[in-house]
Fold this sequence. Notes:
Helices cover 33% and strands 23% of the residues. It is built from 22 helices and 30 strands. Strands 11-12-10-13-14-9-15 form a seven-stranded parallel sheet, sandwiched between helices. It has a six-stranded parallel sheet with strand order 16-26-25-17-24-23, sandwiched between helices. A hairpin with a 6-residue loop joins strand 20 (477-479) and strand 21. Helix 18 (586-598) runs parallel beside helix 19. The structure holds adenosine-5'-diphosphate (ADP) and zinc ion (2 copies).
Amino acid sequence: MLLCEVALPVPIAHAFTYSVPEGLALRAVAGARAVCPFRGRRLVGVILGVRDGEPPRGAKPLASVLEETPAVPADSLAFLRDLAAYYFAPIGEVMRLALPPIERETSRELAEPGLFDRARGVGVRNVQWVSATPVVEEAGSLRGQQAAILAHVRAVGAEPLAKVEGRWGNARPAVKKLAALGLVAIEERAALEEAFFSEPAVRDAPHDATAAQSAAIEAIAGALREGRAATFLVHGVTGSGKTEVYLRTIAAARERGVGSIVLVPEIALTPQLVARFRARFGDEVGVLHSGLTPRERLTMWRRLREGEVDVAVGARSALFAPVHKLGLVIVDEEHDPSFKQEEGVRYHARDMAIWRAHRAGGVCVLGSATPSLESEHLTRTGRAIKLRLPDRARSRPMPRVDLIDLRRTGVGPTGDRRISMPLFRAIEDALKAREQVILFLNRRGFAPGVRCQACGHLATCDSCAVALTFHKRAGAVVRCHFCDFEAPLGARCSKCQSDALELEGVGTEKLEETLSAAFPEARVARLDRDVASGRKVEAILERVRKREVDILVGTQMVTKGHDLPNVTLVGVINADAALSIPDFRASERAFQLLVQVAGRAGRGDVPGRVLVQTWDPEHPAVALAARHDVDAFLERELGDRRELGFPPLSRAALVRVDAVDEAEARDACMQLAEVARRCDASRAGDVVVQGPAPAPIARVRNRFRFRVMLRASARPALRGVLAAVDEARATLPRGVRSSIDVDPVQLL
Ligand code: ADP
Ligand code: ZN
Ligand code: ZN
């Protein structure tokens, strides 16, 4: 009897066995999606393999197979299985990462055979948009829905018809009516461009590569030519022209007929990078971003799959793009923590990029001005080749960095000690010279604390063990940044009823207000999660680029790879903030942020200047960042990690447990720690088991959180213990949630 193993989208680690009815024998192949009866429901799973054998008791037959061409090609299938095993993640959930996004459509459609095959024929190149016209309607002539739709379209300017329909249900007749009245226009726009690109791609000619760029390009192209599964770390200072190296190696890959994937930290923060890709390759590059509709995604997915488009650019999840004949995977800003997925399948896109490239017999290129210690370690152990771009491409000097010792400087002219006198003067000078300023403060909101002056109580969230942040612009509310809690700022202390409440600390919102007051002539803008998501980020960056903004204030969003030639001054409000996080990577993270934000200054004709305010100017992360001395920092930090036995000089995993009841969570975590200790003792005793301990943020959304940290000098020892822990998780009480995080990044 023909049997198959199927990965189902359920949080169960293993695959399920089904029998294959005769009529489906030809279609049921590895990688194809099948509709499977499962506990009274019908689920769509991915066939992992087919074999002959005796069906196990209760094995059911497949209901149908959805497509003729397997949705997941064979090489991806092997990669995904390995990924699932590596992260102890349920195979069904891992498969979902690689599937075309049809799943979000209705289950009726899902159960219909041939959907994917049909989608292949859908040339969704055009999408209907509704836009407002300058025509003014006669008062009272419109009915409820029509009036509402018109008001909405006028507010947003233009929107895909499908979106309007999504908002109002059956909106088409109303839109047609509005169009007949000339109040809106319905027009076709190219589907793949509309969501992201305001202008069509303009082709550009490559620069003449610098000597360092040429050497890097030649090394990578050489590996591509020889079909060597190599990994490169392009360590180039900010502005050294790493992008040009990427562009040329992609061109080299295309010449050899192989496809490329480019991973970037956050697509909304990198419109310039995307624009440069489009300028070089035009429509032959597929950009994957959250603004795409499922249909557009599916179309892009199909075009990549069929090799019509051979370059995919996107954030973390683009790792799974079905690029045809993959030969090159590039990870730009490889040090960025956003490459780690922190929910569901906790994979690290940088680490998996190396796997995916090599499995396809291709080359992986990691690029950064501030390499992660993991990547640096790879080069030192001979598993990656370092390529250096030591100078800025257009022979601009690196900006001068001055440290401002907050212990020695008093309150500046604004009355706020967070803007010291030297920083104030430097801002003044930059504004006078009509140059732009970036100020970095890694704290959003107006004030990160509200404290009672009578009893000292700091207002905290009811459900989480964190202080509430005061947000002024959003209506004078306090918010928890870990759950959705929001409430008006009360007049009295919740503990002693005193009305002596005072705001503590400063966030970007307050900084923006202070600056606007101190420099009334200046146009101040803010970039953080509160003002900006998706396209709004682009719009703000666009205003800065057009020099409609003089001072840009923001969180780490301002440190990303922006190339803004008129920015000559970068100010860091508090360099120490990132250092106080209870995490062995705090130093590394602080260093990276400082070097990256400093790299935004002086990229144009006028040399740049960076002022870093700090309480601890001797701290190595601060002092070495001020000298742009990345090598010395890497050397030192690697030494510290070796001494303490932390990654990348050891292998780590975090076992997380949470429950509503504190004792229950602690006990469950204790149980898992015991399993780990016992298992390790029965083996070589190579694994250090730390915990259980409360998480640094001990309670979130009313659940108490505990964890066990496991470390080992070699991976196999750690894996053995993790396997035992994984098995023991199944025996925990029902209300307890647990997860295994292999190579953890976020320790909060
Ligand atoms: P990075 O990504 O390393 O920070 P970019 O790729 O943004 O650097 O390059 C910085 C600037 O230098 C860009 O404006 C880019 O157009 C320019 N550039 C890159 N390579 C060259 C080159 N070979 N000659 C002249 N300008 C270059
Ligand atoms: Zn009080
Ligand atoms: Zn909360």
